[in-house]
Design brief:
single chain, about 170 residues, mainly alpha, 7 helices
């Protein structure tokens, strides 16, 4: 694998692998560090002559193992059977989650703020309006705008059937 091929895989897989790691360790900063470690180890393996037949599977297994090691070291995990083996469903879920968060990141700043306060933080429209010192109607308008833009960004020609934060 050339460095250019590796870079392409890195760009395509970094966020989905981060979402996968986040589901295991439940800490965004740690997840990011662990995914970076996995890519570094993969690059060193390749540089030393190692060959990888299925890079995607290799990276998901690597991230899973690094996450398990992290949890073991912190003694935060009692039963590994709670962490599913890497399969198509976990890979698909991590790519879907990555697309969703990328779409959320693409929302205008105020719109994203209102949307996350509602869906991530569980605040009511009234609480959001009070905290941001805006009207309830403005909150509703921003939510409508957010849903519309997310539907558009995630549609691929059809309506998204699953948004985990809704």
């Amino acid at each position: 694998m050339t460095s250019k091929e590796f870079e392409i895989f890195f760009r395509r897989m970094y966020l989905p692998l981060g979402m996968y790691a986040l589901r295991i360790v439940d800490d965004a900063d740690v997840s990011e560090d662990l995914v970076q470690d996995a890519f570094m180890k993969a690059w060193l393996y390749i540089e030393n002559g190692g060959e990888i037949d299925n890079f995607s599977s290799f990276m998901y297994r690597s991230v899973r193992n690094i996450c398990l090691s992290y949890l073991r070291d912190r003694r935060e995990m009692l039963d590994e059977s709670n962490i599913p083996e890497v399969g198509d469903e976990e890979i698909d879920t991590s790519f879907r989650d990555a697309r969703i968060w990328k779409a959320i990141d693409g929302l205008p700043e105020k719109c994203r703020e209102v949307f996350l306060m509602s869906k991530r933080d569980g605040l009511t429209n009234e609480e959001i309006a009070e905290e941001l010192d805006i009207s309830i109607k403005t909150v509703k308008n921003q939510m409508t705008k957010a849903f519309s833009r997310l539907r558009e960004a995630l549609s691929d020609g059809h309506k998204p059937f699953f948004l985990p934060f809704l």
